[in-house]
Amino acid sequence: MKKITIGEAARRSGVKVPTVRYYESIGLLAAPSRSEGNQRSFEPADISRLAFIRHARELGFEIEAIRTLLTLQDDPHQSCASADAIAKARLAEVEQRIRSLMALKAELEIMVEGCGHGRVDQCRVIEVLADHDQCTHSHH
Amino acid sequence: MKKITIGEAARRSGVKVPTVRYYESIGLLAAPSRSEGNQRSFEPADISRLAFIRHARELGFEIEAIRTLLTLQDDPHQSCASADAIAKARLAEVEQRIRSLMALKAELEIMVEGCGHGRVDQCRVIEVLADHDQCTHSHH
DNA sequence: CCTACATCCTCTAGCGACTAGAGGTGCAAG
DNA sequence: CTTGCACCTCTAGTCGCTAGAGGATGTAGG
Questions:
Q1: Which of A13, A18, A127, B68 is the Cys-Cys partner for A50 at CB 3.0 to 4.6 Å?
Q2: Do A70 and A1 share a structural domain?
Q3: Is A3 found in the same domain as A66?
Q4: Which of B15, B45, B61 is the C-terminal boundary of a domain?
Q5: Residue bearing the bigger pLDDT, B108 or A6
Q6: What is the DSSP letter of B37?
Q7: From the list A58, A77, A104, which residue is nearest B59 (CB)?
Q8: B102 Cβ neighbours under 8 A, 6+ residues apart
Q9: A84 falls within a domain
Q10: Which of A58, A78, A107 sits opposite B120 (nearest CB)?
Q11: Quick check: B94 and A86 CB within 8 A?
């Protein structure tokens, strides 16, 4: 088998080189074998694992959640109830975050629209920040 | 004038006690005068400033942006162009983040719906994570 | 006045998930 | 053989706090 260097692994998985080493250091990725010159030599399976991690991170899963998802992947006979629960929890988080950001968006739009582009003492941006009661929503 | 303790200031502004000290340490809030026993003694203006900071943080502004907004508030004769620019930039960020989260939401929903609640080797959650090509959107 | 207790003080270290940099070694091409 | 990139380890920094240690101060009741 051909040796996959860390740079190659990074390029193929889309995870940065220092991040690969970081994942190894926290035990998310098994320590690969080393070449004579002490350089890491990865297997194709490591690339898949890194891609899995990267994808999960992009979806906003936390490292500990990914650790659980990975142990599930490692043992395909387990029930996928935990995977389902993790994904559902993440979905709920995302939905909550979207709602919250929509409220922020509305408030920021009011601030920006109200700005007369004059001096600060007439600026709605500063004014709204200073006085919470001017918020349309009591979201936060 | 009556002395406002840090606990009182925290309660009135909605900023936690250690956070008030932290804001002072990074120069976001001027160091208040001290009592005989070396305890901080705040002015009403400090409470307003803290409330301003808190509100801006809730809206997701970064500390450095808030620092700029505060210097604008301190000098009301300045043009509010920078305040406007900061708020606009934040609005753009929020809009981008919402778009991104909507895409995530869609993907998570597909994962969760596809889960047959059986074993991991038939689980759509794990499967989608392992294979990025199964994503409906190429958002990330 | 004494005691209990809450609140205050400073300082350091930790969180998550990396990222940056120093200082050194390995390796392949020209 | 030398150039130059990729690799190695290790430490420290990022952001915005938060937690805890260990001690001083302030207040209310007995």
A1: A13
A2: yes
A3: yes
A4: B61
A5: A6
A6: T
A7: A104
A8: A98
A9: no
A10: A78
A11: no
- A87:B125 CB<8 A: yes
Cα-flanking dihedrals φ and ψ of residue A40, to 5°? -65, 140
Q: How many CB atoms lie within 10 A of CB B104?
A: 22
Using alpha carbons only, give the angle B26, B30, B33 rounded to the nearest 5 degrees. Answer: 125
- Using the Cβ of A85 and the Cβ atoms of chain B, whether some distance falls under 8 Å is answered with no
Query: B101: domain range?
Result: 97-140
Q: Could you tell me if A59 and B107 are in contact, meaning their C-beta atoms sit under 8 angstroms apart?
A: yes
* pLDDT (tens digit per residue) in B29-68: 999 999 999 999 999 999 999 999 999 998 889 999 999 9
Query: Band of the pLDDT at B137, cuts 50, 70, 90?
Result: low
How many Cβ pairs closer than 8 A exist between chain A and B? 165
Q: B115 falls in which pLDDT band (50, 70, 90)?
A: confident
- Asked whether residue A5 is assigned to any structural domain, the reply reads yes
Inspect the interface and report whether the beta carbons of B112 and A104 lie closer than 8 Å: no
Residues B57, B7, single domain; the answer is: yes
Q: Separation of CA B117 and C1' C17 in angstroms? A: 31
CATH code, domain with A13? 1.10.1660.10
